[in-house]
């Protein structure tokens, strides 16, 4: 390992809660409680004192209801952090907490802070998607409230239609999308069954009858896929003749939170803390608002260029499976080794709690790199309205 400068930014710890299905085991858990749970586990595992944290940056997409009023600040206080620790909430849609990680790293890198926490949360059970855009409505209605001039210029569709356009552009069949979804569940089940997710923090939830349970693994993973039923599912928007995107080959709406501690190398090692990884590239890009989800391609190219790497140098790739067509388009473009591409499955199986997913995928990536004794990892996420975030890290532990 090359010598690290005392002011270099390193990742010290990363955790995530188990992800619950929308309306499932975490349906009664407030989002600020979810995030507080992740924050408490993060400082406990890392050994850093809460008073040393200079800022808490939280990604959250639907900032309304229980997720409104700056959930970062509320959750850190719920978690018992001193009142001297500030918090800020940010929304870059699905890339929110991955970008929070970038922003936290930048603050530490500029020596504004010695330590910062990047985190994210979404309770899609308790705060319906796009509640903040719809004045009390929810889910897909949010796209009806985009500015008319914006829609005249770009005719931005719902992301499901963008996923269909991606499938059309890369000549992906419905069968290929469904096959990918089946494999995501199979990989996620295999990882869960042998206890590979060292990053997961168990938390209390309830079963269907309302009895208390401990949720220590992702609730959305299906042990058995009924392929006949899957094949019979209707496309979300298009007709059966032209549509390929169904609920089965798209990410699950979920409840969950995650948190990542970053710090200045010299400050961390001076306290006896052991860094897990350092950053080689942090990228955010804009892309076509109509195709919308293809930003992962230029974002990955930029990240690899900044890091001086090729796709074949990587030991682990974690791409958010917003839709199977997005992941398969990435595969078509970069042709990565299938063994390192979402090795433990992805959001189709474990879920996608919007603002919490980015930090969660970083926690998962670091746990995966350690498990395979790998060194280099890429995380990349598509984002609504045409953006993407990408991060490349080098493992140090």
UniProtKB/TrEMBL annotation:
NCBIfam families on file: AcCoA-C-Actrans (TIGR01930)
Entries under PANTHER family matching the protein: ACETYL-COA C-ACYLTRANSFERASE (PTHR43365:SF1), BLR7806 PROTEIN (PTHR43365)
Record's keyword annotation contains Transferase: yes
Domain Thiolase N-terminal residue range list: 9-262
Keywords: Acyltransferase, Transferase
Source organism superkingdom: Bacteria
The protein's name: Thiolase family protein
Family, similarity comment: Belongs to the thiolase-like superfamily. Thiolase family.
Record domain Thiolase C-terminal: where: 273-395
InterPro entries in alphabetical order: Thiolase, Thiolase-like, Thiolase_C, Thiolase_CS, Thiolase_N
């Amino acid at each position: 390992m090359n010598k690290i400068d005392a002011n270099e930014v390193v990742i010290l710890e990363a955790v995530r809660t188990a992800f619950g299905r929308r309306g499932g085991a975490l349906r009664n858990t407030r989002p600020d409680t979810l995030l507080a749970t992740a924050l408490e586990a993060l400082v406990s595992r890392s050994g850093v004192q809460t008073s040393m944290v200079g800022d808490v940056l939280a990604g959250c997409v639907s900032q309304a209801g229980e997720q409104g009023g700056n959930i970062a600040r509320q959750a850190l206080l719920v978690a018992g952090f001193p009142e001297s620790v500030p918090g800020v909430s940010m929304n870059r849609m699905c890339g929110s907490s991955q970008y929070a990680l970038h922003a936290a790293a930048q603050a530490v890198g500029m020596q504004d802070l010695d330590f910062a926490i990047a985190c994210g949360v979404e309770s899609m059970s308790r705060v319906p998607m796009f509640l903040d855009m719809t004045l009390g409505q929810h889910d897909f209605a949010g796209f009806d409230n985009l500015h008319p001039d914006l829609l005249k210029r770009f005719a931005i569709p719902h992301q499901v239609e963008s996923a269909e356009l991606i499938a059309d552009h890369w000549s992906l069949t419905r069968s290929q999308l469904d096959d990918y979804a089946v494999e995501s569940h199979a990989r996620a089940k295999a990882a869960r069954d042998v206890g590979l997710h060292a990053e997961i923090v168990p938390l209390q939830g309830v079963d269907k009858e309302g009895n208390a349970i401990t949720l220590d693994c992702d609730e959305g993973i299906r042990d058995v896929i009924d392929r006949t039923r899957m094949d019979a599912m209707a496309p979300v928007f298009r007709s059966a003749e032209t549509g390929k995107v169904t609920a089965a080959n798209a990410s699950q709406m979920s409840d969950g939170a995650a948190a990542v501690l970053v710090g200045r190398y010299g400050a961390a090692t001076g306290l006896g803390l052991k860094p897990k990884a350092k950053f080689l590239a942090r990228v955010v890009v804009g892309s076509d608002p109509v195709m919308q989800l293809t930003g992962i391609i230029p974002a990955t190219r930029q990240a690899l260029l900044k890091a001086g790497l090729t796709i074949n140098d990587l030991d682990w790739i974690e791409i958010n499976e917003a839709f199977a067509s997005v992941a398969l388009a990435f595969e078509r473009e970069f042709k990565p080794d299938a063994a390192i591409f979402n090795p433990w499955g992805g959001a189709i199986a474990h879920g996608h709690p919007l603002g919490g997913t980015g930090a969660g995928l970083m926690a998962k990536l670091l746990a995966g790199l350690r498990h395979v004794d790998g060194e280099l990892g890429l995380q990349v996420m598509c984002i609504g309205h045409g953006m993407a975030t990408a991060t490349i890290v080098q493992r140090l532990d």
